[in-house]
User: Fold these one by one.
Assistant:
Number 1:
Amino acid sequence: MIEYWWRPLILLAALAFFSSVVASLAGARAGWVVFCLGLLAVIVFHQRQLHRLLTWLGEQQSDAQQDKHGGKHRPLPTTHGHWGDVFYLVQRNYKKNMTLSQHAVEERQEMFQVAGALPEGVVILDPDRRIVWFNRSAQRHFGLSPERDYGQYFYYLLREKRFLEWLARGDAQETLSMSSLASSDRTLSLQLAPLPNGRRMLLSHDITELIRLDEMRRDFIANVSHELRTPITVIVGFLEAFADMEDPDPSQFKAQIGLMREQSDRMRDLIDDLLVLARLEADPDLSDDAIDIALLGQKMLEDARLLSRGQHLITLDLDAEGVLRGSHQEIYSACMNLVSNAERYTPVGGEIILSWDVPPGSGLRFSVRDTGEGIEAQHLPRLTERFYRVDKGRSRGNGGTGLGLAIVKRVLLRHQAHLQIESVVGKGSRFSALFSSERFTPARPESAALTGAV
Ligand SMILES: Nc1ncnc2c1ncn2[C@@H]1O[C@H](COP(=O)(O)OP(=O)(O)O)[C@@H](O)[C@H]1O
Ligand SMILES: [Mg+2]
């Protein structure tokens, strides 16, 4: 494409030769006139090409500023000779730069999209702590608005002394916990990261859930310690009393053994329940047994009667039959927890009805109804919390650990089922486990007749 550099010289030599021919024919003056006109034509030609190039460059610049033509550029008119080479090279470099800057713009946009979607809040601050940019999470955390807050000094929004001092220190290693500006019940952890040119990135992380879990863990440990401490204190008290006796009386000792045993049983029950809960939470595997609900109901009825020792009137209503899929052992233990609660909180002579049925438009239901003391409505949502009891002394007095319904809830959750509690104070309660129809296969009519005889 690049032409030989000596071509213009040939042109000039040709002009000089032509002028000298004219001079020899028509006189020196005519020769000079022709030579000058030729030179003038050459200068005008170059001037015109230069003008075209400069105009084109000017147009490109204003197009780029206004972002016209969707990133495409206008073509430079073609021409010949050295100017053709110059036009070609300028145009080629221009295209290359355009493509590179297009990529850079796209990458920048992509980065902002990624930062915009981060769950952490991101606020970019200039060296004077003015807001340059923020993402959606930061809008939520600090109640920022893109229309109002760009360019705003960040410390105007948050004037808390602790925060201002932390911001002034600008230590990237130091995190700060504070409540969210947008909703005071949420807690944020803030961190500053340095950026080039004196800018800073303020990161905010919502740690409300972490704090809640930590509180739950602390409460749980405090509760367990307290529950274990009470029986141990009783046992240690007896033992110390006996140790202090100069002449221990075996008959007195015997009388206290029953009480000590009761307290030991209580500790064992508590530890057993804790182990069950721990296993349910740690073990992701669920066995897939085919549970004949009629047989399970029958077994629970027998066990409930044994447990009650004739103190309650216990019956079984079998309004549904078929196979429930899940862990036999876990479902038995969850249902028996409901049964034992009914016995524990129903006075002697009360009635307890176990039932399996399929309520209209839903899956399988196992219910335990009692004619016990009932529960006030405000307690119902909290009954499945660990160690939550309506009456602590009462529950402990009759062997409750406060973990039974927490275990029931866990087991049902593992079976995609849920617990429903209905209760009327003074009349009684109904605790129901509701399984989805995907886990239950109803029996065929002939097998229903067979199990009905059980
Ligand atoms: N059938 C029921 N009738 C009345 N109250 C009940 C019944 N079942 C559970 N409760 C209440 O729910 C609380 C939590 O039950 P649970 O988790 O099984 O613990 P607990 O070991 O105390 O029985 C009990 O302390 C009791 O106050
Ligand atoms: Mg219980």
Number 2:
Amino acid sequence: MDLRTQYMGLQLKNPVIASASPLSSKVDSIRRLEDVGASAVVMFSLFEEQIRHENAAFDHLLSSHTESFAESLDYFPNVAEEYEATPESYLTLIQQAKAAVDIPIIGSLNGITNSGWIDYAKQIEQAGADALELNIFYIPTDLMESGADIEQRYIDILTTVKSVVSIPVALKLSPFFSSIGNMMKRLDDAGADGLVLFNRFYQPDFDIQTLSVNPTLQLSTNAEIRLPLLWIAMLHGRVNASLAATRGVHSHVEVIKYLLAGADVVMSTSALLKNGVEMLKTFLYGLEKWMEGRGYESVSEMRGVMSHQNVAHPEAFERVNYIRILESFKMEME
Ligand SMILES: Cc1cc2nc3c(=O)[nH]c(=O)nc-3n(C[C@H](O)[C@H](O)[C@H](O)COP(=O)(O)O)c2cc1C
């Protein structure tokens, strides 16, 4: 069975990648991911806030009169502390991971502006990363900021990063664009090597006893695959960028669905955190068994056979099908 896959020009032994998470925070756990079959590892993100935090400390050393130093540190919280990482240790970890494993290591930067933090893209490349994933986790709280401005922000960050590195660059994106397909096409035209669909957005909850905002992170369920599945099916064959599916992969079934939709690679985090990284072996085993049963000899044969372009009834993806579903639901109730 030939599971080999290309992702952004990288040759992978299979289509299953460990997405960004604390599972990449130690060399040993990266090695473990390789042992259970991951074909590449995306490092946890280095956050813009973390880099600014370091820069603020550096600026303070240069101008010791700054009284607002402590405040500025509060303003740029040390978010990567959870991963016990500084920008320097992040780069060292990439170097160590590269020496320890044979699979590609993909660095990850998480930020929202087009300034200083982007310098780290070059350093991540120099540390040996095979590719870079940019996670632009932007929540537009300014009601005066237009959709066009926000879209331009994404394009600007991508083009700035592309101008400083020569490794492939993927964008990990949210689905919150008014025309998702058009935005993906624009990023594709602007040189994105990969589109990682979709980011799970931080959505706070309320505690009604303490009247406080509750920043909790919930692991995904497999029900979450539907939105990325739809858009991967829509985009397959219509963009040059590689397509990576992230969200809701909890068994081989989701791996298969995403590949049928047209994903080049499928990523997983929640299932591995919840059940242990051994779980990844079952994804590969289940995929091979299914392919055997269906007579597929390679992943490339099955990829995209259920994309919007290739499926026998593309209207199944479209509005008309929504109306049909509602009709049949009504009939069931009668
Ligand atoms: C505990 C945890 C930490 C994560 N850290 C990062 C991160 O540093 N950078 C990033 O881009 N995504 C991060 N993610 C998102 C995952 O990479 C992944 O895209 C998301 O969880 C959806 O995939 P899943 O359904 O397989 O979990 C994190 C997710 C979890 C659960």
